[in-house]
Amino acid sequence: MNDRAASAFVRQELVPERSAPIKTTGFVGFLRTRLFNSPTNILLTVASLLLLWFTVIPAVRFLLFDAVWRGTDRNACLAENAGHAVGACWPFVQAKFSQFIYGFYPQAERWRVDLTFILAALLLLPLLIPRLPAKGVNASLFFVAFPVIAFFLLRGGGLNGFGISWTASLLSGLVDSMVDAGRKLTSTGEVTAVVGPILALLGRLIVVLGIAASYLIRPLTWLRDQVQLCSRPMWADFAVTAGIVSVLAFVFNGGVRSGWRSLLTSLVVFAGIGAVIAALGLDHGGLPVVDTRLWGGLLVTLVVSVTGIVTSMPVGVALALGRRSTIPLIRIFSVAFIEFWRGVPLITVLFFATYMLPLFLPGNFTVDGFVRVLIGIALFAGAYNAEVVRGGLLAIPRGQTEAANALGLSYWKTTALIMMPQALRHVIPGLVNSFIALFKDTSLVSIVALFDLLGQLRASFSDPAWATPTTLFTGFAFAGMIYFVFCFGMSRYSLFVEHRLNAHRRS
Amino acid sequence: MTANSIVSISGLNKWFGDFHVLRDLNLEVGKGERIVICGPSGSGKSTLIRCINALEEFQEGRIVVDGIELGPNLRRVDDVRREVGMVFQSFNLFPHLTVLENCTLAPIWVRNLPKKDAEAAAMKYLERVKIPQQANKYPGQLSGGQQQRVAIARALTMNPKVMLFDEPTSALDPEMVKEVLDTMVDLANEGMTMLVVTHEMGFAREVADRIVFMDEGQIIEANTPADFFANPQHARTRLFLSQILR
User: Among residues A130, A467, A479, B36, which is most buried (max CB within 10 A)?
Assistant: First the structure.
């Protein structure tokens, strides 16, 4: 029999009609194939339904159906007055809302907080939307100009001098403390036995160096004194600083040949600074000072977390690079720094910054307690970020550096153009993880008498006018929702960024 | 050192820890000369050409590239690297940049070329390696052979005087080897000075001016392709050739 005969075919009987197979699409199909297709799945489905029933239903009832929406004090939220079992007591949140946002910030000055929030939103939103132009200007406004403006808006106060005065005061302070330390060392050396002469000699050397340095900065201090003699010292100082900086920018960027652009940039920047100074009236005292101890609520939470997130990034990147450096001193410093801050609980850091640091600093040198907390948190978060970023750097194959080197790119250019862009893309989930953790950890500042959102909330629980059985739950539900909105927002935005930046991984 | 040599290696010694990987190497490469370096694995071929653009440091000897001396302290590394292009076995393209960005990065940041000029030049080189239409894709979207041709274009955008190839076809599928080799042949015909580490003996026979055979960190034999294949002198060379030219 050949192949042709084997493939020949004649149908003997026709195939009868059959009913359609069981549906596997649509809602019923979904139930059948996914939820109730085996005893285990039936069990799991029922268990899940019960779980939802016992969590979601009571939550919705508490927050919406049994909730009290109107009222002026605790009486509205009592079961006997409401006529039914009472859920959330929303009038409480309504009454305390401004406290949750501003803390004890003076009523009359709260427009300053609002203005800061609006400014932040106006600068941040365009920065987050990739399609909008002028990212460079936008970023420098948000990261450099905004913090300064926000400082003078939120805290208030004015300026007595500008660049010249600051530099002169800083340097003369340094020189004074040098001479002072030298004198003390000399007198200690004179009464000490064996090593005394060496100490005394060292002390005299430091004194001489200090005096020499004081002669060196004499022109600067002279300039400062002249400026301060003017009728409007701030503006005189401002003009002199602007002039010096602009001329330096002009000269260092190529002078007559190619420096015009940087001269223009410098002048525009100073014009902007001048406009801000004039607008806020910083030259004659500025806005009334609101002590940071009066700040509170969401204001503190946002200031602490945004400052923490923004400043911890450069700290983290620098430490991660330092830990991989080939220079032993830098590497050892980075490792020690990271291990120290990671090994200490945040609460200890906050305590140290608030209560212990003032004891160590010289008497006339004080930093606002709130600023100390900010610095503590930034360094703490920076150490964590450093390890996350280092993880990203480790994931980059050695060939990448070699290829960059072979093209003649320097270490810094390789790092900025090849290593960091890849490393940071690898670790977006990890970084956002630590940002979210940082955002929620800000509630720990209540331990050092700063009232963040949660601290303010707990303070408001003690108000007898609103003491009801459900006040506590209502307050925490409200705070939880605010925290959730911010954290969920960060999380979703990070997914968007990840998707956008990882275009090269999709093929 | 002869008058027209562009790479001059003398008395080169290198150790990895205690392992003496390059032993007393001397090599002169003339302008426009094409040299193929072959030898068994572990013989130090890659290490040798990686020394030329200072990806590896060495302990003794000196390397002069286009009049720039590279001593053991590697001080003029960046000057040398600007004159020497390198193509790697594993391509090492920058995955987060498009093909065009890969090719304009170094001209913009090292040579300070305006972006427009750099892009025009890069397109010219991409046309030369016959993939201008892929300019806006990411390296991950290209085949191995295309990636390696982009890597060649990327190296060429710096206008190097010497090109180093470190086993450029070893990571490729057999049918992609040809497209890369064709690109290299074109390059050779244009008069580029090339040092190529490869096992492609067909390429060596066709293109090379000189074949250098290395084993155990030293040059065993160097000769024109005709003599090298027809008339190997050293016993080790004969053994090697008998193994790869079966």
Answer: B36
Question: Long-range CB contacts (< 8 A, 24+ apart) of A104-107?
Answer: A104/A294, A104/A295, A104/A296, A104/A451, A105/A290, A105/A294, A105/A295, A105/A296, A105/A299, A106/A290, A106/A294
Amino acid identity, residue A403?
Answer: A
Tell me, rounded to whole angstroms, the distance of Cα A443 from its chain centroid: 14
pLDDT tens profile A165-183? 778 778 888 888 888 888 8
8 Å CB contact of A402 and B109: no
d(CA B225, CA A84): 100
What value of ipTM does the predicted structure carry?
0.91
Contact B156, B85 (CB under 8 A): yes
> Which one, of A287, A183, A169, lies nearest residue A228 by Cα?
A169
Mutate to test the interface with A, among B49, B92, B97 (most CBs of A within 10 A): B92
Going across the sheet that includes B68-70, the strands are B19-30, B5-16, B60-65, B68-70
Q: Contact, A88 vs A63, CB < 8 A?
A: yes
Q: Find, in chain B, the residue whose alpha carbon is nearest to that of A424.
A: B96
Strand blocks (E) in B111-197 = 162-166, 193-197
What whole-number distance in Å separates Cα of residue A452 and Cα of residue A443? 6
In the structure encoding, which two tokens stand for residue B142, read together?
Answer: 């290209």
Q: Are A103 and A300 in contact (CB under 8 A)?
A: yes
CB A276, CB A162: distance < 8 Å: no
- Say what the pTM is: 0.82
The token duo for B203 is 């390429």
Identify which of A118, A119, A139, A115 has the alpha carbon closest to the alpha carbon of residue A129: A139
Contact flag A399-B88 (C-beta cutoff 8 Å): yes
pLDDT digits (tens, 9 = 90+) for B127-161: 998 889 999 999 999 999 999 999 999 999 999 99
Neighbours of B116 (CB within 10 A): 9
Q: Which of A83, A108, A110, A109 is nearest to A97 (CA)?
A: A110
3-state SS assignment for residue A155: coil
Chain A residue with CA closest to B56: the answer is A402
For B216: left if phi > 0, alpha if psi spans -120 to 50, otherwise beta; the answer is left
B28 φψ region: left (φ > 0), alpha (ψ -120 to 50), beta (else): beta
Give yes or no for a contact between A470 and A77, defined as CB atoms under 8 angstroms apart.
yes
Q: What residue type is A395 in one-letter code?
A: A
- From the CA of A494, how many Å to the nearest CA of chain B? 18
Q: Which of A96, A88, A95 is nearest to A296 (CA)?
A: A96
Total number of residues shown for chain A: 507
Read off the tokens for B180.
Answer: 């890369």
Give yes or no for A505 touching B (CB within 8 A): yes
Closest CA to B163 of B42, B77, B58, B34: B34
Mean pLDDT value across residues A446-467: 87
Band (pLDDT 50/70/90 cuts) for residue A201 is confident
**Higher model confidence: residue B72 or residue B131?**
B131
User: Do the beta carbons of residue A422 and residue A342 sit within 8 Å?
Assistant: no
Could you tell me if B141 lies within 8 Å of chain A, comparing CB atoms? yes
Euclidean distance between CA atoms B18 and B13, whole angstroms: 12
Chain A residues inside the 8 Å CB shell of B93: 403
